[in-house]
Design a protein that fits this description.
318 residues; five-stranded parallel beta sheet; Rossmann fold; 2 domains; single chain; six-stranded mixed beta sheet; Alpha-Beta Plaits; 20% strand; alpha/beta; 11 strands
Length: 318
Amino acid sequence: MGEEDEMNQEYSLATVLIVDDEPTNIEVLAKLLQPDHRVLFTTDPSRAFHLAAQKEPDLILMDVIMPVTDGYEVCRQLKNRPETRDIPVIFVTAMSEEQFEAIGFEVGGVDYVTKPVKPFLLRARVRTHIDLKRKNDLLKRLAAMDGLTGIPNRRTMDEFLRLEWHRGLRHETRLSAMLIDVDYFKKFNDHHGHQAGDHCLRQIAGALSRALERKTDLVARYGGEEFACILPETPLPGAIHTAEKIQQAVAALAIPHPRSEVSDIVTLSMGVVSITPQRGLEPEEILTAADRLLYSAKRQGRNQFQSATYQPERLASV
């Protein structure tokens, strides 16, 4: 059995990562879990962080006594990392004393199974914790999404902006944002009705999502008929390119809007701003700047975007 071998290729199955320095122990656990689970493994505890972050397993089975770094420390570090903290860890060890079990729970483990393992008991506990993990994941996804459009909601966008702001601070990279408003949407609703208005917003949300070129970008419903995009590591020319793609994508929908004062189809107004995050500034300032530019786009006739780099106390248009 080769290092980090993927012993079951059925990706629809739950994934279990086994971390144990003894290949024999991995063999035993893998045979118990197959064919009901996709199994990954490593004999090197330092590799557990990479595998957990890259493969996103549903569950980790962790040995305790391992060279260099024991399982408790590996679990503690996994729980300190945002990308791996929600992966449940079951300790599988020969140490049956109560104090060792207590340590396992203290460092973030969800269960503790002693060797030699009882097959029915291990399978049952694995199944239980995977079910709990998937239900929690579903609840988080639902809480993060806007109920009408199916894209991230304002709260999710705020959290994403804070993360990317601090990332930009650390690496001194540009961060761009845009606020987007559907032109004359109240008149659209008054003419077509609210059901048609809801359908229009869903179509626009889909067009915005398709227009974003990178998985690292985020589009969210900001509120009412407003949307927002956060574009990490993007200077202003890249943000302008994305704004142009968004305008083209919404125009291609050709949603009739006979009450619009700027077009016979639904159009957008946008404020686009780029900034290098700086200490002393707050993430919300980029949204405030984008909102001012959005207001300027509306004041100058709508169906357009206004863009600028952001500097404290002034906007420098390009």
